[in-house]
Amino acid sequence: MVRFLFRRLLSIIPVLAIVSIIVFLALRLGPGDPAAILAGDSATPEMVAAMRAHLGLDQSLPQQFLHWVVQIAHGDLGRSITSNQPVTTLVASRLQPTLALAIATIIFSILVATPLGVLAAWRRGTWVDNLASGGAVIGFALPAFVTGYLLVFVFALKLQWLPVQGFVPLSEGFWPFGRHLVLPTLTLSTIYIALITRVTRASMLEILGEDFVRTARAKGLPERVVLFRHALGNSAIPILSVIGIGIALLLGGVVVTESVFSIPGLGRLTVEAVVARDYPVVQGIIILFSGVYVLINLAVDISYAIFDPRISY
Amino acid sequence: MTLNLTRRRLIKLGGAAALAQSAPRLSFAQSKSRVIRAVMHTALRVTDPLVVPAWTTRNHGYNIYDTLFSMDSKLNYKPQMVETFNVSSDGLTYTFHLRTGLMFHDGAPVTTEDVIASLKRWGSRDPMGISLMAATGELAAVDERTFRLVLKRPFGHVLAALGKPSSAVPFIMPARIAATPPSQQITEYVGSGPFRFVASEFKPGIKAVYDRNPDYVARQEAPDGLAGGKVVKVDRYEWIYISDFQTSLNALVNNEVDYFENPTHEMIPNAEKLGVKLFDYNPAGFSGYCRPNWLSPLIAKQEIRQAILHAVNQRDWLDAQIGDPKYYRSSSAMFVPDMPYGTEAGWNTKADVAAAKALLTKGGYKGEPITLLQVADTPIISPLVDVTAQALRQIGMNVKLVTLDWLSVLARRTKQESGEQGGWDLMHATQAAVDIFNPIINAHVMTVGKTGPFGWPEDEPLLDLRQSFIDETDSTKQKAIAETIQKRAYEVVTHIPTGMFRQPAMHRPNLSGFIPALVPVFWNVEKT
Lengths: 313, 528
What we know:
The complex is a heterodimer of chains A (313) and B (528). Chain A has 313 residues and is an all-alpha fold.
């Protein structure tokens, strides 16, 4: 297990190296020039060139890349071209909203979708199954911005129960923190509830037809124990896989939700940085996300061994 | 049955539902807080008003810095930090005396050393500042509150330069900060203006916070445009950014924010029904323009540029861009109608397709592609491009649209090549009246060629005229020169104004005291 962990952690290095090269080149070779953006409307070519030199963008690509790699090696992700703030400071300031939204979404999705999937499989072909399956289809089909606006319309504008937008840090109290998270979490959860419900249902259907389930029932075990201990436990691998993928996708999925609800998280920071061609910020975030993806996959792999004793590393 | 749910439909649904609420809800719950939360057109990211001469840094600057002179609502330059000034009989020596009680936010008094350092930094970068400094022989302190500006040749716009209302504004900052090279961003945000910048709460791209400066000594006069007493009547002003228009409006209706700077024009009717108030902070308005790339071999021909000028009816641009005639005005005035140098000379704003076709023939046009830069993500600009493309096709031009996001357009427009060679031939953008209202600041008529602003027009007569305008001290003659400049600019087609439009801001009914000041300012605003 230790060797496995060590090997997987080491794999972060080549992943980050490849990602960093791709991101660096994609940003530099794509359209856009931060110097031209910053220089303004009445800037002369001389002013734009001076700005480019000031930002170090007049150096060759290998020189710029080397400079960036050396910076990273020293634990420095550089400074934002636009705000001149350290990238680490910017990322840190946006971390809490994204983490809060991601964690709330995953927890809520698992709590709703897993029992729903189990229920749909247990009552296969009934109205409960049809409702869960139909709901899952709608959940997949509705784009986040439509769900978001509908929820805002009902719960913020019409009922005036919840705020339209924004984020309040936990340090300012749990109630304002929670109130601001409700609608974004519901919005973002829709697709994950749909996804996890369907996978849980399919996995449970397969397991419920197995001999050991029939045996468990024949032994007179309560249905609750049969479903949640025996069947669900053995259905866990595909469900865990999809939750793992879901968490990874969530980092990208928060972008729309953060925009609709004006949440100052990492998703919005990424979009703003890409739009402004703020190279150091984009590079820093992608590197961070890449590392997180690798760690999420590692956590999922480890969880396989916990849920299924036949798996060992 | 399908659910045809578009954003526009959602806006209508939202409006209808909110109207269905009871009367007390329409009047909104009133906040007792003395904090204004304003959603501005974009976020503050860069805080140096000179390094990045954008509207955001300008607006930030007006909060925390003060200016020597300011423009009032009648477009006169009034002393602001200056108490008195006099001009020598030959018009070459200006002596300025600063007001008493001027103090920076760090407690240090404002001295002429700070003023001179700030003016020198500004004068090394801003076009109007460069013009002033080029005419200046000496800029020196007489004492801590008096300084002298001695011109080496006549310059008819000294007060206009010192009171320049928009980017880049000659804000006064402490000498140690003004010593920062103009290519480098300042890192300390100390001014002497009516608000103090709360750096510890600044989140670039999200929120900027300004507290009332309790030590600010406002002028005694009533506020008038950017001039007069800047009395802050709230404790705090929070500048927040919400990227989504609909979310901004929803937040305003739901009492989460107090002010929304740039709603789309189509939002206005429903928002008014919801009890939201409109405020036109910039009565002079905004203008779109079409800019040709003079370095493109096709566009280099004057007949081709003139054909483009005659191809489009200006009202078509405005109808597509704004829609409601209540918010737009057709005008050929390059230096803004109703402003000191506004004149309708040189172009009648109407299309003349026959003339345009004849000019194309005369220019030897043989169906070469003309590349227009289309802006995908800026709804106030993209309709202009569509109208131009259609008009050019109508006169027989081979139009090629290159669709990019706005910031990619900004990068591409720095390329001097033609559209076929990876550059561009024609592009559209918008600008504020306050940035174009005289021939010195209006970059379109700066016709120095390759070394000038994008578009790179080159025209000696226009350059001479602009210099005459700079040197002229008589206002009547200045107006006459400005008119000649405009006629010449239309003759050679430096650019084509696409018409004026207004951009009302929205606010909640419990806010009052807004001042129309060309730029959004928050002094004198009360919240009940």
